[in-house]
Amino acid sequence: MLANDNDTQAHFGTLGREVQKPATFRHELLNFIAAELPRWRDRAERPRESSETILTSQLCSHLNSVSRHSPGWDILQFKVEEADEQNKGRKIDLVPLPCGTAISIEGRRFTDFELIMPIECKRLPTPKEKDRDEREYVFSKYSSTGGIQRFKEGNHGAVHAFGGMIGYVQEESPSVWDERIAGWISGLAGAQAGWTLKDLLSSESADSKLRLTVLRSNHERKKGLTNIELRHLWIEMN
User: Fold this and answer.
1) Is it the case that residue 156 has pLDDT exceeding 70?
2) Is a pLDDT exceeding 80 seen at residue 132?
3) pLDDT per residue over 104-117, tens digit each?
C-alpha cells in the first residue's frame, strides 16, 4: 500500500533543521580545514600525487569523511569545481556547503545549494608550462587565473567578504614563498591597476612540526565590491 501523499510531501525535499552560527564560523571552519591538512597529507593510504586537481579532490574526500564523524562539523559537505554564484562559467576549487540542514550566519541563510565561502587551491611553485605565469598564486599576465587576482577582480566570491586559499608547497619552504610572494605583490603595486602594498600577506602562525603555515590578507576589489579577507593555508607536501 502506498503511503499517504500528504505525509510524503511533508518530508520530501525539506532540510531537517536550521542551525544558527556566529560571525566567526567561517574562521573556525578554516581552522578545521587547517587542522586536517597535515592529517590528510600524512595518510598512509593516500596516493601520492602532484596535480592540483587531484590533490584538491583527495582533500575534499578526506574532509567529507572526517566531518561526518566530527561533532559540530557533521552539518557540512565539501565539493570541488563548483560554479561561482555570479560568474557561472567559472569554477571554484573547493567549497563547503550545508549538509542535511540549513545554516544561518550573520542573518544569511545557507541551504545545501549555497556555498558558505569560496576556497582557491594553488601549487607552489606554479607548473612550468607555456602561458603559465610563475606568479600565478597572486597574478597572471596571461589570463585571469591568478589566485588572489580572481578574488580582487570579483571573478570568484563576489558575494562573499571572506574566503580561503590553500597552497600546496611542493618545492622550497614557506618562508621562501612568503618572501617571493611579497616581492611579486610589491612589484604589482603601482604598476598594475588596483594593486597596492595593502595586498601584502601577513603571517598568522607557522608550525614546523606539522609543516603548516597560516597567513592572512585583505584586498580592495573592483566593480564596487566590498573588501575581501583571505586566509592562506600552506601545507608542505615536499
Assistant:
1) yes
2) yes
3) 999 899 999 999 99
Measure the N-to-C terminal CA separation of the chain; round to a whole number of Å.
Answer: 60
Three cell numbers, residue 89: 562559467
| Residue 128 placed within a domain | yes
Local structure of residue 141 (DSSP, 8 states): S
Question: What pLDDT, in 10s, does the model give residues 211-224?
Answer: 999 999 999 998 88
Comparing 206 with 10, the larger pLDDT belongs to 206
Distance, in Å, from the CA atom of 201 to the CA atom of 182, rounded to the nearest integer, reads 7
- Which amino acid, 176? V
Is 176 inside any structural domain?
yes
In a domain, 132, yes or no: yes
Residue 5 lies in a domain: no
What's the total number of domains in the chain?
A: 1
- Which pTM does this prediction carry? 0.92
Residue type, 132: R
Domain of residue 189 covers: 17-236
Distance of alpha carbon 127 from alpha carbon 213, whole angstroms: 21
By residue count, the chain amounts to: 238
